[in-house]
């Protein structure tokens, strides 16, 4: 990326794109209701917590997602780490649980590298 930063709006757009790709097969199979008053019920019927969907998912995926580890990164303090690199390094090799990295506001000038032994 030649030192280009990913900033707030780009991260938000990336999250939206990934969410669409993950949920598109579910949404396409159940069309969005025309009546706006039914949309919230439709959404809640499709998107359920892992515990409720557990019987339809791969058992390893269910196990990995039951209690995800959340790590907070804050440049000025207040998080567990102040760089994204240190946060990624804190994840053990061969990790089998979901890890959510919550990145606080600011400009992080780092080259992010996630080794293949840190799934």
From TrEMBL:
<keyword id="KW-0812">Transmembrane</keyword>
<dbReference type="InterPro" id="IPR011050">
    <property type="entry name" value="Pectin_lyase_fold/virulence"/>
</dbReference>
<dbReference type="InterPro" id="IPR012334">
    <property type="entry name" value="Pectin_lyas_fold"/>
</dbReference>
<feature type="transmembrane region" description="Helical">
    <location>
        <begin position="12"/>
        <end position="28"/>
    </location>
</feature>
<protein>
    <recommendedName>
        <fullName>Pectinesterase</fullName>
    </recommendedName>
</protein>
<keyword id="KW-1133">Transmembrane helix</keyword>
<keyword id="KW-0472">Membrane</keyword>
């Amino acid at each position: 990326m030649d030192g280009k930063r990913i900033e707030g709006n780009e991260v938000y757009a990336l999250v939206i794109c990934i969410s669409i790709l993950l949920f598109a097969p579910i949404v396409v199979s159940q069309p969005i209701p025309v009546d706006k008053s039914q949309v919230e019920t439709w959404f809640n019927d499709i998107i359920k917590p892992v515990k409720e969907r557990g019987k339809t998912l791969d058992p390893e995926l269910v196990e990995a997602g039951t209690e995800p580890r959340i790590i907070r990164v804050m440049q000025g303090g207040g998080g567990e780490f102040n760089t994204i690199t240190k946060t990624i390094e804190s994840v053990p090799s061969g990790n089998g649980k979901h890890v959510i990295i919550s990145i606080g506001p600011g400009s992080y000038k780092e080259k992010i590298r996630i080794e293949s032994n840190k799934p």
